């Protein structure tokens, strides 16, 4: 499959080291607003939407994780960067791992947030794809935000909850379902020991989608020298619930 030109935005100096930020399934690049604003003092921060999500084209599906990874490599090429720091949350983290395994020469440092190297069972993703196509994305929005944000976080900021539900509802059903297929068939576990980029793994202690012990810990164990940080008071979108701590961890790791 040919690559798709990804919708993206840039913040920070054009001659600074590049940091790529990939979003979660069902989200767009705005989920990284806080980190982009904070890190753009010293980095060329590039946020992007996966194919089929946000402002990126909805290519015919289903997709494989490698299709999404090649899109990002094409974006790096288009932006004229030989290498970049590569980071992502959930689906964005899966794409980041694929790039680090398959194009290690393009990755300076790696940051993996609330993600998984093998995210089963397949029936989970088949069902979400079915609901998206038959009932629409609004049917998936409330339960998705319940996984994304802790109950305390939803109660403390109802406006954010509504905004996240609206983001999910606006996602293209076919694009979402095709990305579900990429996760359904993904298995990156065997490739993790080959990752050479210095790696930071961040997890939310209350993440029901990718609990740290089942998902983050195996990644950190398999990648040589990787560091694992688990943040209390955070579910799946730890960068939204603990923005200052996530930004601090990014800054420390990328400046090391």
Structural commentary:
43% of the residues lie in helices and 15% in strands. It contains 11 helices and 7 strands. It has helices at residues 33-39, 65-78, 91-102, 122-135, 141-148, 151-156, 158-169, 173-184, 216-222, 238-241, 243-255, and strands at 8-11, 18-22, 44-48, 84-89, 107-113, 199-204, 227-231. Strands 1-3-2-4-5-6-7 form a 7-stranded mixed beta sheet, with helices on both faces. Helix 3 (91-102) links the parallel strand 4 (84-89) and strand 5. The longest helix is centred in the N-terminal third of the chain and has 14 residues, at 65-78. The model has no long low-confidence stretch (mean pLDDT 98).
Order of helices and strands: EEHEHEHEHHHHHEHEHH
Radius of gyration: 16 Å
Mean pLDDT: 98
Category by helix and strand content? alpha/beta
């Amino acid at each position: 499959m040919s690559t798709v030109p990804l919708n993206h935005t840039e913040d920070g100096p054009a001659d600074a080291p590049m940091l790529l930020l990939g979003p979660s399934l069902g989200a767009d690049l705005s989920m990284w607003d806080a980190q982009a604003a904070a890190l753009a003092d010293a980095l060329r921060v590039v946020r992007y939407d996966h194919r089929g999500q946000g402002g990126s084209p909805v290519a015919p599906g289903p997709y494989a994780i490698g299709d999404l990874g090649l899109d990002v490599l094409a974006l790096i090429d288009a932006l004229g960067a030989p290498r970049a720091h590569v980071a992502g949350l959930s689906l964005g983290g899966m794409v980041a791992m694929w790039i680090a395994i398959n194009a290690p020469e393009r990755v300076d440092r790696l940051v993996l947030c609330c993600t998984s190297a093998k995210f089963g069972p397949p029936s989970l993703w088949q069902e979400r794809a079915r609901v998206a196509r038959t009932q629409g994305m609004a049917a998936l929005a409330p339960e998705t935000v319940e996984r994304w944000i802790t109950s305390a976080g939803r109660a403390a900021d109802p406006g954010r909850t509504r905004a996240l539900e609206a983001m999910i509802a606006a996602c293209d059903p076919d694009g979402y379902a095709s990305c579900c297929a990429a996760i359904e068939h993904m298995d990156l576990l065997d490739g993790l020991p080959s990752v050479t980029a210095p790696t930071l793994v961040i997890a939310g202690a209350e993440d029901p989608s990718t609990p740290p012990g089942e998902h983050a810990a195996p990644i950190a164990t398999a990648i040589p020298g990787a560091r694992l940080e688990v943040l209390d008071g955070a579910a799946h979108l730890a960068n939204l619930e603990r923005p200052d701590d996530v930004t601090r961890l990014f800054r420390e790791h990328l400046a090391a």
